[in-house]
Design a protein that fits this description.
The complex is a heterodimer.
Chain A: H1 4-19, H2 40-54, H3 60-65, H4 69-80
Chain B: H1 6-21, H2 27-40, H3 44-66, H4 71-101, H5 122-137, H6 147-155, H7 157-160, H8 168-176, H9 183-215, H10 223-253, H11 271-277, H12 280-297, H13 303-321, H14 325-343, H15 345-351, H16 355-377, H17 381-391, H18 403-420, H19 430-447
Helix pairs in contact in B: 1-2, 2-6, 3-4, 3-5, 3-6, 4-5, 6-8, 9-10, 9-18, 9-19, 10-16, 10-17, 10-18, 12-13, 13-14, 14-16, 16-17
The chains are: A mainly alpha, B mainly alpha.
Chain lengths: ~80, ~450
């Protein structure tokens, strides 16, 4: 499994591109409500961006279970490995 | 028994004395019995139905938790959701659908299967059930092991009639960690109940001219039609947020915090923001259990998938109220507004936004909200179109609206918005707070016998 430390900076860049501003600083316990512009509409765009960037496919149920950035990074890490 | 009746206050007072006198471990049971007794004052049979639905949910959630991930587990979850939706569809939509499909059958003879009145609060408690099953299925938290707590959550009497739609985990955590009575929370609850009733009083005053205009729009032109269009959302806000304040306030008297439903919706400067501030527990429910799964399923379709997800979500918001053409149009209009808003994001960013831009965005948003709510309130789509057409004719005669009512409503709505965003605070002085509570009790005592209008959302 690819460690969180490798995934998080890439996720941060993706978030900045999707949400359209640079004020994104992710930690493992960051949730959508902590980041400006991260709402249900931009969440779908972020998931698409994650899938394209990491060349993975996430199941809907896997995405719906996520409750913070750490869990998303772990999921990506498992899929990429 | 309605919230604005003297009997309810006596019932509430007795419940509070019992609740705070009994040991903490017995409180869930007492709350359950008290909630069911309240529901039985409306209908005993529907209380049995509520209990059956709760037992069914309790059993299925345990089964979902025990089964390994796979088809069988998904099947049990689907069965639970289908059961809750089936209940909702049978009681809420079968009768209107029957009359749409077979208009000739509307001879005044009631249908056998669906002639029953709608079980009170069914739209709210079925949503609680579905969200609970979905959260257990998605392993967001384990199923509730205590049957009494789950049943008390589903039937919690301040929320059963019109929400707010509280998530199971939030409720049961609070009920488990109940402490001794908290004086400050208790007083806050009383103040909130007082505010709720004041809002309801305002809503009822606004309802008089608004009902007159909406029921016979052909008789009015110009200003009164325009006022009715713009002030109906304000009336609905006072009515529904008033009810919510009372429900949250009663919850606080029992030491339980309920989620808020409104956060200054009239300060929204775009339609997406409006829906983040209006009927929050319904919109977040639909976001979590309809929009998110749907938009994720359709994400490979790009903008078309997003457009479809928004449309389905907003149409469901409309039809959740009732399966009629005006509610469908209400949902469709909001879907259109939201799609235009989402797809014009790039253009809006390029245009930038100063004070003038913000004021214009606010005015446009409020106008769009008012237009959509005309369909929400009008008895038929025809009435709505007539009212909108007549709003454009020139007449400065204010019709049934009186200046004091309009000015009072506008001042009150501004104060409420400022309170909700925290720019204004209620005085902490206990003298003022107790004064407000006493004034409200007197208001309820004198006003209740004349209050023939129930809370609007009670019908859903």
């Amino acid at each position: 499994m690819v460690p969180q430390q490798e995934i998080l900076p890439q996720l941060e860049t993706l978030c900045r591109n999707v949400f359209g501003h640079d004020d994104v600083h992710l930690a493992t316990d960051t949730t959508a409500t902590d980041v400006s512009g991260w709402d249900s509409l931009s969440h779908v765009r972020l998931i698409r961006a994650v899938e394209r960037h990491f060349r993975i496919k996430l199941a809907v149920s896997e995405v719906l279970k996520l409750s913070n950035v750490g869990q998303l990074a772990n999921l990506i890490g498992r899929k990429v490995a | 028994m309605t919230f604005h009746s003297v009997e309810f206050f006596v019932y509430l007072f007795a419940g509070l004395v019992l609740f705070h006198a009994c040991p903490v471990r017995c409180r869930p049971g007492l709350l359950l019995v008290y909630s069911y007794l309240f529901y039985c004052t409306w209908s005993v049979w529907y209380a049995v139905l509520l209990l059956a639905a709760s037992l069914w949910t309790f059993g299925l959630a345990l089964l979902i938790h025990r089964l390994p991930v796979g088809r069988k587990r998904t099947g049990v979850f689907a069965l639970g959701v289908a059961g809750a939706l089936g209940l909702l569809i049978f009681f809420k939509y079968l009768q209107p659908l029957h009359f749409y499909l077979f208009p000739s059958s509307d001879t005044g003879e009631p249908l056998r299967a669906s002639s029953l009145l709608i079980p009170l609060g069914i739209s709210f408690y079925t949503f609680k059930i579905i969200s609970y099953l979905a959260d257990v299925y998605l392993e967001k938290f384990p199923p509730e092991a205590n049957l009494v707590i789950l049943c008390a959550h589903i039937a919690f009497f301040p929320q059963i009639l019109s929400g707010p739609i509280q998530r199971s985990q939030d409720f049961s955590d609070q009920l488990r960690s109940q402490q001794q009575p908290n004086g400050s929370l208790f007083l806050d609850g009383m103040v909130l109940i007082a505010l709720g009733f004041l809002k309801k009083l305002l809503a009822d005053q606004l309802a008089i001219p608004i009902n007159e205009i909406f029921n016979s729009p052909r008789a009015f032109h110009g200003l009164p039609c325009l006022l009715a269009c713009y002030l109906f959302p304000v009336q609905l806000y006072f009515d529904f947020s008033g009810y919510t304040d009372v429900a949250i306030g009663i919850g606080r008297l029992f030491g339980l915090e309920s989620p808020c439903n409104f956060r200054a919706p009239f300060l929204a400067t775009n339609i997406q923001e409006f829906w983040k501030r209006w009927h929050i527990t319904l919109t977040t429910w639909l976001r979590d259990y309809v929009f998110s799964p749907l938009s994720l399923c359709l994400r490979d379709w790009g903008l078309v998938g997003l457009f479809l997800s928004i449309c389905i979500n907003m149409i469901l918001i409309g039809l959740w109220h009732a399966a009629t053409l005006p509610y469908l149009l209400f949902g469709l209009l909001h879907a259109l507004f939201l799609c235009v808003y989402v797809f014009s994001g790039g253009l809006r960013r390029r245009m930038g936004r100063g004070v003038t831009g913000t004021v214009m965005s606010w005015a446009i948003t409020m106008t769009l909200v008012a237009v959509a709510f005309v369909f929400f309130r009008a008895p038929s789509a025809k009435h709505a179109l007539v009212l909108l057409r007549h709003s454009f004719s020139f007449s400065l005669h204010s019709g049934p609206f009186t200046k004091p009512v309009v000015l009072c409503a506008l001042a009150a709505v501004v104060i409420c918005q400022l309170l909700e965003i925290g720019r204004m605070r209620l005085p902490r002085s206990e003298v003022i707070r107790y004064g407000l509570i006493t004034a409200t009790l007197l208001l309820v005592y004198f006003y209740a016998p004349f209050a023939t209008v129930s809370f609007l959302y009670q019908r859903y």
